[in-house]
Amino acid sequence: MNFNANSPLDIFLTELFDRYREAVPEVNQITAALLKNGIVSSQHDIVNDHIAFRTLGVPNLGIKSFEKIFLFHGYQKRDHYYFEEKKLDAYWYSPPAPEYPRIFLSELKADQLSTGTQEIIKKYTGDIKSDPVDAIDLNDGEAIAAFLHHPLWRLPDLKDYTALLEESEYAAWVIYNRYYLNHYTISVHALSKDYQSLPAFNQFVEGLGIRLNDAGGKIKTSADGLLSQSSTVAGRHEVEFADGAKTKVAGSYVEFAERSVLPAYSHLKPEEIQTIHRREGFETSNADKIFESTYTGQIKS
């Protein structure tokens, strides 16, 4: 991840990643091992495939609000994905230039949840009467970074968090973590030597003592066989809730992606292959299981 550091987009993406890296020790652990093995010379040599955020689909929040930040900075809205069981919508956004990561935004369809769960969500978000993004100077990278790390609603009580967890683990994650960066993604195919395939990279990561999300298998592969994804299991951190109760909650995690060369470009030499020659977009079946990197079945197993 190597940005120019002067534009508003560079500024807030850099600050986002720096705070995320401090909170997710696996990032530095993997980078340190890649450095030790001579695969990269710095964090900047690692290509970031995409970053992801989770939102709540309630008035003045959700994708329609959050996407304004990235659309303003030249991102283009692309494909829609729907996750029926998890009651989620998502879109991905292509970057304004190849050096920037794709964006993956998801949103809980809160109106599809039980009345009790909707009431809990409304309890914390109902006071937001206008779109908070509209109040940001989107030309100010520091202001955007501050917004993304500033809580828009108060800290929940443990009983409310637990109630959400029972119906929607996604809802519980967002109500506590808010807009915190959910994950960043290492482009495995952009690495060198023996680390360019996902099976080999997973073996390398597990060799560091890092657990992988095994929901649907450790490697999730698209129907066309051209997009493979894996992820670590989110770490758990003991936190204090508004009522003074404490428990461990899931934080963020790291993803790994391998985008294969499209059949039409299979004749190209390795040095000729660019981003446009590889499989684009995402896959619902893959993403469905990647979401579970923060779910109880993974973090407690």
Overview of the structural elements:
The chain is α+β, with helices and mostly antiparallel strands. The protein has a single domain (8-299), classed as 2,3-Dihydroxybiphenyl 1,2-Dioxygenase, domain 1 (Roll), CATH 3.10.180. Helix content is 32%, strand content 20%. It has ten helices and ten strands. The chain has an eight-stranded mixed beta sheet, with helices on both faces. The protein has a two-stranded antiparallel ribbon with strand order 8-9. Helix 1 runs parallel beside helix 5 (141-148). The model has no long low-confidence stretch (mean pLDDT 95).
Figure out the total of helices: 10
Q: Rounded to an integer, what's the Rg over CA atoms? A: 19 Å
Total number of strands = 10
Overall CATH architecture: Roll
Instruction: Calculate the mean pLDDT score and round it.
Output: 95
Query: How would a textbook summarize the main sheet?
Result: 8 strands, mixed
> What is the CATH third-level topology name?
2,3-Dihydroxybiphenyl 1,2-Dioxygenase, domain 1
- What sequence of helices (H) and strands (E) makes up the elements? HHEHEEEHHHHEHEEEEEHH
Strand-residue fraction? 15-25%
Which overall shape is indicated by the principal axes computed on the Cα atoms? Answer: globular
